[in-house]
Prior knowledge:
Layout: H1 6-16, H2 20-29, H3 34-51, E1 59-67, E2 72-80, H4 83-86, H5 89-104, H6 111-115, H7 127-138, E3 143-150, E4 154-158, E5 164-172, H8 177-193, H9 205-221, H10 226-244, E6 250-251, E7 254-258, H11 259-265, E8 268-277
Antiparallel strand pairs: 1-2, 2-3, 4-5, 5-8, 6-7
Amino acid sequence: MAEITAAAVMALRDKTGLPMMECKKALQACGGNTDEAVDWLRKQGVKTQAMRADRETSTGRLAVYTDLAKGVGAMIEMKCESAPVAGSPDFKDFVNDIAKTLALGPGAKTPDDLLAQKSLAHPDRTLGELKDDLFNRMREVFELSRICRIDAPCGGYAHHDGSKAALVEVAGNTTGATAAEVAKDVAMHAVAMAPQALSKEDLDPEVVAKEREILSDAARKEGKPENIIAKMIEGRLRNFFSQCVLLEQPFVKDDKQTVGQLATAAGLQVKRLENWRIGG
């Protein structure tokens, strides 16, 4: 058996981030060959992942990548077992790499398709291989549970803890810094205010009908005459829409204008909203 030096073990540890004893065991199993030891460790990690696959992944992180000039945006959800791992620098870097690869790569229909692609940050490795390596270092199960790519100009925003994120498709005057800033601001607003729909037309008609019925009953109990109730209801519905419809909501940075007015002033039309919460 080849002699396994402390320097060789340390070099493998630096390369993989795994404990010294595991690195020594891998080198012993591979006759001191570092490259083979890396593969050996990865295979052992895959076996361990399979045994832990039923563990609950109740937290995680959302990541967004957009490029208004290139006309693309992407958002992904990577789940894990614990909050400390979700907030770790390595995990953050990994989910950001996945989102960027989804946006700027060939695209993917499923999470498995995406994991099979080469990473943009590490072109010699697939995202799946990087995921396995991360598991080996952190010993937590990871699940790429949702992916979304929009092939159109987009703005995006993710909350600092990765628990909430939004992707907003825009059209119109999408060139320049102002358009990029407004598109991102609309996404940020959506994350903060969690609208139920993009526009009034997108709301469930049954929800609107129920609200209309509630407001009408309330007006009758106030003793309002039937001939003015209809006009009153339309005014009160505007308040309802301002609470739950993105384009009708007062903009969080300037409540003197709605989100729709903000977009219009910048020459933009908001076409689509993807607003996610971890596990939602």
